[in-house]
Each structure stands twice: as structure tokens, then as C-alpha cells.
Amino acid sequence: xxxxxxxxxxxxxxxxxxxxxxxxxxxxxxxxxxxxxxxxxxxxxxxxxxxxxxxxxxxxxxxxxxxxxxxxxxxxxxxxxxxxxxxxxxxxxxxxxxxxxxxxxxxxxxxxxxxxxxxxxxxxxxxxxxxxxxxxxxxxxxxxxxxxxxxxxxxxxxxxxxxxxxxxxxxxxxxxxxxxxxxxxxxxxxxxxxxxxxxxxxxxxxxxxxxxxxxxxxxxxxxxxxxxxxxxxxxxxxxxxxxxxxxxxxxxxxxxxxxxxxxxxxxxxxxxxxxx
Length: 276
What we know:
Helix content is 73%, strand content 0%. With 276 residues, it is mainly α.
């Protein structure tokens, strides 16, 4: 409908989406609403910002009424809920790549931002999804988190102030840990290891996030890894500090090899139980 309605759809989309949300009764119907909003952003990009900005919070709240974990494993409802959550992930990633990222951090939507970011932290292990889709969810989750870091922290090479208040601290305190805990706790990696093609693609995105976080946050990120995160998983202080230095100095390819080696070492210490 968006493809054939031209700019006129922007005049009516808020009313249309509000009506759809009131009459949506299942994950499959909600997915169609997300598809509509995604089409809107894809076609109109920045021009769609005002209307998407207004509808984003109610769309998120309605989406999260359908929890991924509230349906029996293997059921059709579980499959539909997982598909809805994947569609939501693609929607947010699309906003970040189409210059619609201001929607997420606007005053109208700041209250829901933590819910949005937390969804990607949960998606980072892929454990809420079936094993076939888990690696693509892990990859998309880390791609999206990386894009958030790129957009919402200051680039030291340009000095441009783009910080979202508190996000740099979030990168250091939370993303440093998720880079390690997600692959170790992931059922996909537990069953398939770190060497499959899909695993390597997902792990590559975690490496990208580590490198960018180290560039944007400097030694604070690498020190958090070395002094707190890795020792928490039982790694010796010597090896932890060595990896912290590698995050700062290694190129992407070298760090990728180092990261797989680190995970293999941690797997011997941490066979899959959860660390809080």
C-alpha cells in the first residue's frame, strides 16, 4: 500500500496505525503492522520521521505484548512470536541505517529506549530463538548494537559530539560483558561450536563491536574487559590483560582469531552455565 500511495500516506498513517494497533490480536497481525512501518521508513526515509516518531512508542509496546518466551517451545505460536521479534529487530536496524535513528532518542520515545536496547541484549545470545534462526539473530543483534555505538558516542577522530547521555557508560559497563557472555551462553555455539560459517559470521560482528567500542571509549572499555569481565569468567589476570591490550592494538582480522581462541579457552573454564 505504501508503495502506491505516495506522500499522501504520510497524512493518514498515524490514524491508520492507531486503528491497526487497536484491532491487532495476534503476533502475525502485529508483524504486518511492523512491515507497514518498515515500508514507510524504507520509502520515505527522513521524510517519514515526524509520523514514525509519533507512532513508535505504541508500536513498540504492542509488539512486546507478545513475549518470545510465553509460548510453548516448538508451537506455531512460538514460531510466530519469534518471527515478530525478528521483524522488530529488522525495523530498528533499518531506522539506524536510514537516518531515522533520532526516532529512538527523541523526547517522545526516550522512555521506551531501554526496552528497545534490552531486546538486542537478549537477542545477542540467540537463546530465545530456534537453532536455525539463532545465528542470524545473533549477527543482527550485534550489528545493531554496533550501529548504536557508532551513532550515539562521540567519534574521537572528528571530535563531533553525538553522545546520547549515558550511552558511553552503557557501552563500557554492559556491552563489554555481552561480548563475552552472549557467545558463551548461546545454545547455538554450545551445540555447533565456533567454527561453522554461520558462527564465524556472527562472531565477526562481535569483534567489530569490540573494536568500535575500544575506539570510542578508549581504555575504559578494554580495562573493563581485562579487569572485570574476563576474570569474572575465570580467566587468569595475565591472559585477561593480554586480551584487553589486543582489543586496543590488533587489526580486525587478527582480533577475530584472538577472539575465537579466547572463547575456546573460556569454554574449558565455563562449559555453559550462566554467570550473573
